[in-house]
Amino acid sequence: MLLLQKGEGGAWLVWPQHQNWGSMRLPLGTLLPSLWEGAPLHTLLLFAILLILAYYLQRRGQHPNSPPSPPRLPIVGNFFQMDFKTPQITLQKFVRKYGDVFCLHLGSFTFMLVSGLPLIKEVLVNQDHVFIDRPNVPTQSHVFQSFGLIMSNGHQWRQQRRFALMTLKNFGLGKKTLEDRIREEARYLIEAIREEKGQPFDPHLQINNAVSNIICSITFGHRFEYHNSQFQDLLKSLDEATVLQGTWECQVFDMFPRIMKFLPGSHQKLFREWKKLESFVEHVIKQHKEDLNPEETRDFIDAYLQELSKDTMHSSFNEKNLVCCTLDLFFAGTETTSTTLRWALLYMALYPEIQGKIQAEIDRVIGQSRQPTMADKEKMPYTNAAIHEVQRMGNIIPFNVPRMAAIDTTVAGYHVSKGTILITNLTALHKDPKEWTTPETFNPEHFLENGQFKKRESFLPFSIGKRVCLGEQLARAELFLFFTCLLQNFTFQAPPDTQLSLDFRMGITISPIPYQICALPRVI
Fold first, then answer.
1. Contact 77/69 with Cβ under 8 angstroms?
2. In 3D, which of 263, 325, 156, 322 has the Cα closest to residue 271?
3. What is the pTM for the complete model shown?
4. Rounded mean pLDDT of 43-69?
């Protein structure tokens, strides 16, 4: 609750009655009337004039042929029209009202939402030179500045991405060596789940650890045991950071960073969690420096340190970029695949008949005497289709990673100003009733035709264009091998007298709320 207190000179001050800012909501229904009643008339007139002036300047700076947008308030724009817990639902309402191209305004930012496959291809492929850059998002800039693989731009981004792709390939991407690492880790995961003895458990910890160990073996040179308390703390920090990014305080920080950096709230916790992760990476880099052997490149960090020693002119290689690139690989290589697998187990428990069909295919193609391999994938269309359907329904990155217009351009006949932030509506694409026969229902048949796997053009979980996910090949291998191993060994179902839910947490990704599940060992 907020208290109004008269200060010096008759001005009204707003003070928090308690310090639990992290759980604070925006009590406009009580705050605004109280301010209105208590403030002097000249203060209210000045405030009204400032609001009108701000609104006039906003409208004046807008191109007459800009995309349509909902009515907005001065300064804050459409902030109070957004539900940050379920933004994909709010935005689909705007799509129905304003069409496949419209704008939203949050503070000084203008967002353009683009829906439909033709327009998504137009902006991400045909105009990829215009929308190649990432925007300067204050919460991300606070952590990464302009470094790393995800949020960097220009020459720096091209250099870092090229080096990361080359290094990933050198350490097995697309080769049997990396497949063998995944299969080995799958054995550890199966044993960890077997220890639960069919009792209810939350699979988040084991799945996170298993998936993270693959990217850790590439970046850090080794895997971590499932009971390593330090590593579990890091994975918790990663999960916390992912969820905190979606809170309203972080959205307000993005709008007003100069003010919000002095105020408490979930954005401050977000920065603390990222700092823990950054400190861990810095410590690992320090260890690598101490025992670096130029004759033996063990992992990504070694390869990067050797690149640093070349001291090339106009190079973007520096220690800050090493830290940020490693963090990006650690985050992207852990969170997205882990979240998808957690959705997969949830859907299997909710759709036992589909789980049974997958297991029948596994038994027919692989049996129980050996582990799955990537060579099995072509012979397992139903399993492959189910994995794709998990990605479609899980919808973990509903609006893709944002882009920014580098120059003025035109989209669907509308003028788009330089600096406009592009949001591509993957939610609408993956739930389009024109593309999917049962868009709201889990149905692997969406990816099957005459019993064979069918690629769908309207399926873009890894995006398209020059900034397509660089870990797509790794993620696809992990999803197939981990998922198939899990269903080869266990049947997943809800605990007795428990109703599983498809409710989710909104953050950087959409993840299922924590759930308990039973993994019953299969007896063939």
1. no
2. 263
3. 0.87
4. 65
